[in-house]
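Ticket closed. Logging final result for Flagellar hook protein FlgE.
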Amino acid sequence: MSLYGMLRTSVSGMTAQSNLLGTVSDNIANAGTAGYKRADTQFSSLLLETGGTEYQSGSVNTDVRYAISQQGALNYTSSSTDLAVQGSGFFLVNDPSGQTQLTRAGSFQVDASTGNLVNSAGLTLMGYDVSAGDPNVVLNGTAGLVPINLQNTKLAATPSTEGTFAANLPSNAAVATSPTAGANVAGASFTDKSSLVAYDNLGNAVTLDLYMTKTAENPGVWELAVYDQAAAPATGTFPYASGPLSTQTLTFDASGKLASGGSISLAVPNGATLTLDLAGMSQLAAPYTPFTASVNGNAPSPISDFSIAKDGTVYATDANGRKSAIYRIPLGTVQSPDRLEPLTGNAYSTTLDSGAIQIGFPNEGGVGSLLSGATEQSNVDMASELTRMIVAQRDYTANSKVFQTGTELLDVLMNLKR
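Final structure:
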């Protein structure tokens, strides 16, 4: 074995152990960093061709790898914008230049200047705007993603278009005398009455009066007439100034189930066409009992709070307690996450070895689940890192001793030549 080969091998060994100490140092420094993934240094020997009488020393190859796919423990917080992923997915974030990156660092908060959700590294959380309906999701690209903005969000007025009304109509009620409520004349008769609130195009509340009148026995026929309460007379029940907005005949079978007349459509004054689902109506020997009464739409109202569901949907809650979906947060996955390229700020970019980004939603397609009010801790094990540091320090010292010995032998050799 040549002295130069021995020196070269010793220098290679010290360099390798220096790299190991560097990764250990980074791991220890980021043990408390949310979303940090532990770095590890892998070694392999590089052998040179050796003859039968002389050994040719080689060197050490170093490969730095990251345990990106290893899940860190969860740290629960009191902030609803702190997010953690349980599973293989990553948050999709944009850096200041607009480049999309992947991260597990979910300590997001509202940026005071833009209103966007950003993490501690200043990366902006991206998602889909669902305020106008389901988004067009590109499964293998980031088209359509927008910043999650919680500062400039306002709930606009939404006209009512659909609703549900279900009640039990008493089977033992007497058949009403003519004229019935649908005729809208003075003295019109009805059996039961309820009211619902809908919204017009400007978000004004429109109260709808629903009159239910039994018109025939065996098995049971009822008339449903809907009026705008704003047109009701100042005294008495009928006649309204206009209407009815719509009428529907409900027919029940011998068992009290609705046989026909399962919906009613009407034009809300200054609003859209409202369709009420009546499939839950029944006629049994019990008092008049409303079961379900719901109508979509809302009046314009300031936002009082935000929440994020496990499926990634961001909800805005207005001053009236009404929740509306405004964004949905997707998660990105790659085939080989440990082959992603680490970037500043606990973020990653794809490489040829990692594979391209595939996009899905939490709780769907195996991308993992989303947890609000928590962050993922670093997956660094401090005890293991300290142990690796001691071993690397010992190996570095041994290699330096070999280098020192080789230098001394080389000095002796040079003196003999002189």
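The chain has a mean pLDDT of 86. No further action required.
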